[in-house]
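Let's sit down with a protein and look at its sequence and fold side by side. Once you have written the record down, we can walk along the chain together.
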Amino acid sequence: MNAAAKQRHFDLKSFLANNGALVGLVVLCIALWIATPHFLTGPNLMNIGIQVSTIAVMAFGLTFVIVAAGIDLSVGSVAALSAMVSAYWTTTAGLPDGVSILVGLAVGAMSGLVTGMMSAYGKLPTFIASLAMLTIVRGLTLVVSDGRPISTSESVSFLGSNLGPVPMPIIVMVVTGLIAAFVLNRTIIGKNAFAVGGNTEAARLSGIPVKRVLVTVFAISGLFAGLAGMLLAGRLDSAQPTLATGYELDAIAAVVIGGASLAGGVGRISGTLVGALVLAVIRNGLNLLSVSSFWQQVVIGVVIALAVGFDVIRRKNVRH
């Protein structure tokens, strides 16, 4: 009987350890449903879905980098440059409208590729490489735009519209999430990322091309950041030089809250989506409760600190 009780207790601890963010999200939604009648309404839930889409798509790509024990601080700036170059070459330089999304995706992937090469072959820590790219890319965004907003193409604007009753940002988020989950869990790219993040030296001795893996995960992160930038520009109907400023912090927070370890080797796309939803629901709930935006930042900071602290405790328990 005692053994059975211990087994049940162990299963509960394991469930909470693996799904803590999901449990927290459910509790948070119940609390807000009780606190305000406006939370669980169709329009508000749709608004949460739209708001979370950009951060979620950006965080999906960032999950690959964090799983490989890296960090990418440039995703917000890459999103801005991708949207800006796409808008510039379509509306100013006359590029065919249908190509604008491909241009934005290519810019994002190339930016991530350069960051990965700086880290893998230039021996720069991923923090420094991505921090440098953050500044470089944001500067290029200002150069391309001359500091002014540029109207987006029709195809990019379509990303911010509705497909029937469902907003396109939500559709894109779901589709990209499924693709990212498949690549991370079912392909050699994901398996190598987990191996490198779990133990880089062991991965190298096993014949895994560690440098190539690092470049690949950063290129994926840049690709998703580029798509996130065009999603945001589509909603605004313009690409702006300050687009997605600070979004990199929310994206990192979403990945960590979702259960990924900053030490690498652990992470799930589904967890990242839950983490992004936690942030969006907190902000939405605080807005409905008329809480000052200043205090909202404090609350988000506390949530991030708790998530990282939980990750540290979890890693200590695994080692012991």
